[in-house]
Amino acid sequence: MQSTVDQKEIDTFAALSDKWWDMKGPMRPLHSFTPIRVDYITDAIRRVKGTLPEQAPLQNLRILDIGCGGGLLAEPMARLGGIVTGIDVTSPAIDAARTHAKASGLDITYHCQSAEDLAASGATFDVIYASEVIEHVADRQMFVAAIADMLAENGVIVLTTINRTLPAIALAKYALEYIVRVVPAGTHDPKKFVKPAELRSEFAAVGILLDDATGFAPRPGGFSQVASLAINYGISGSWMHTKSNSG
């Protein structure tokens, strides 16, 4: 049966599942990347939906975190008031996410489930994001279609990923995995890195316009937004038309 799930990717991340909340462990790069990701996601929501409340800016928004891992992004989204659902196909990661959310007093719904299976249930969301995920899926077109099925009218889609360029391959694959070793070897397959134009085309095919993109670059203590999309980037948008007319 066709699926977005790549068993090799599941095995890689399952081996790391007890390390999700270790700030000095293999997930350290994702922890340092989280604040800028939160900023970009909330900016994308604001851009599509207009002014957000100062207190609990994401209140009443149904938010889906695809490939949530141990909950590194789901938790700040919940703290901002979002009604957050996190899904991941790695069961130990979901266990870690549930345990940490409970210890943190956060009400987050977690499921060990693929995007296409959740879409088949008829669930819809106001905001869907997949951060550092799309470069790990087995069938990108199916993944995009599942997102389109779940995105509510006037919904917001946000992705962060790695560009398929020589600088990105050199840094995100070889330098991080084999030289400085801050990412476990085998985490990335450069063939799955995706160019912004490819994402725009694939989402346009299901009626979604990705009309904003920004690059991310490391700085002391974290990351900042930059003009260049050559390595890490975020991309976001919404429906081209009302969902009923989007095909």
UniProtKB/TrEMBL annotation:
The keyword Protein transport does not apply. Pathway: Cofactor biosynthesis; ubiquinone biosynthesis. O-methyltransferase that catalyzes the 2 O-methylation steps in the ubiquinone biosynthetic pathway. S-adenosyl-L-methionine binds at R37, G67, D88, S131. Its EC number is 2.1.1.222, 2.1.1.64. GO terms for biological process: methylation. This is Ubiquinone biosynthesis O-methyltransferase. It catalyses: a 3-(all-trans-polyprenyl)benzene-1,2-diol + S-adenosyl-L-methionine = a 2-methoxy-6-(all-trans-polyprenyl)phenol + S-adenosyl-L-homocysteine + H(+); a 3-demethylubiquinol + S-adenosyl-L-methionine = a ubiquinol + S-adenosyl-L-homocysteine + H(+). Pfam families: Methyltransf_11. Belongs to the methyltransferase superfamily. UbiG/COQ3 family. It comes from Puniceispirillum marinum (strain IMCC1322). The gene is ubiG. Keywords: Methyltransferase, S-adenosyl-L-methionine, Transferase, Ubiquinone, Ubiquinone biosynthesis.
